[in-house]
Specification:
With 304 residues, the chain is an all-alpha fold. The chain has 13 helices and no strands. It has one domain.
């Protein structure tokens, strides 16, 4: 028989061989990419949340904390400094001291203007200069965007909407029981102070308050808790800010909170602080002009 025709037996160590009869086998298993990813899943990275342009901001909780601290120091510092300068030398009761300070527009109105100025300066330095960003547009002062269908929104529409809102508020407030001798009523007893108060309410307050409430606070809260809760919360803060002027009357604070919510809703709807400013300006202007006309230039003040 030809040996080439025979099947060669596999070469395995025999029983008499020095090599062990069994050897450990080394097995290499290649894992396909699909199987490897299944066995060792990579951590999923959540996509970054995308916000509309009017909610794109560069500040957060740390900046808000510093802002509130600066605001508190400014209020205490400005009022303390003006009181030290203009306080009377004789001893007065609390009510007499309040009336005396109201008769001094440098204190009654000057303190408000100085605090507004310091707040805007703080925001300008920390959000504009130090970060190299345009100040007004960063805080939401943009052109009013057209509607979805491309129709232009006329700015005067918001001004006269504010006028209409003031009529509604006056009608509601006339039916409410308000405290006597509220600080805002004390202002109107002094002609110069009252005129400066109205001028400040028309020309300065809308700019400062809209920048803080609708430009600074609203987008920050809207990113954290949503648009609707932010509208409610900033409106409530707006009402609380006016509480001391209104003598702490809860009913009037609620009314002013609703006014603030309307302003913030306009800001959210248009994406522009300029729209809520026009509404605020129309609201304050109508009330201010009405006060001047109804009191003949604050020379004939009603008893209450």
């Amino acid at each position: 028989m030809n040996p080439l025709d025979e099947t060669q037996p596999s070469q395995q160590p025999g029983p008499d061989s020095d090599t062990p009869s069994t050897q450990p086998e080394t097995t290499t298993t290649l894992i396909a990419p699909q199987e490897q990813s299944a066995s060792f899943p990579l951590p999923e990275i959540a996509p970054a949340r995308v916000y509309p342009p009017d909610l794109e901001i560069s500040w957060s909780w740390p900046h808000l904390t510093v802002f509130l601290l600066f605001l508190f120091i400014s209020l205490i510092g400005v009022q303390g400094a003006l009181l030290a300068i203009y306080a009377p030398h004789q001893k007065l009761s609390t009510q007499q001291l309040e009336e005396y300070m109201m008769s001094k527009p440098q204190v009654a109105i000057g303190s408000t203007i100085l605090v507004y100025g310091l707040v805007l300066l703080f925001l300008y330095v920390t959000l504009g200069r130090l970060r190299g960003q345009p100040f007004w547009s960063t805080l939401g002062w943009r052109k009013i965007a057209p509607k979805a269908d491309g129709q232009r929104r006329h700015p005067l529409l918001y001004f006269f909407t504010g006028v209409g809102l003031s009529l509604i508020v006056v009608a509601i407030a006339s039916q409410l029981t308000t405290p006597e001798n509220a600080p805002i009523e004390q202002v109107f007893k002094f002609k110069v102070t009252a005129m400066l108060f109205v001028a400040t309410a028309m020309l300065i307050a809308p700019v400062a308050e809209e920048t803080v409430f609708r430009g600074y606070l609203y987008p920050m809260f809207a990113r954290w808790v949503g648009v609707v809760p932010s509208i409610l919360f900033t409106g409530f803060l707006f009402g609380l800010m006016h509480g001391p002027q209104l003598g702490g009357a809860k009913s009037l604070i609620v009314v002013m909170s609703c006014v603030g919510m309307v302003f913030t809703w306009i800001r959210a709807r248009t994406g522009s602080v300029f729209a809520s400013y026009l509404m605020h300006f129309g609201y304050n202007s109508f009330i201010g002009v009405s006060l001047i006309l109804s009191t003949h230039g604050f020379t004939q003040i009603p008893a209450h």
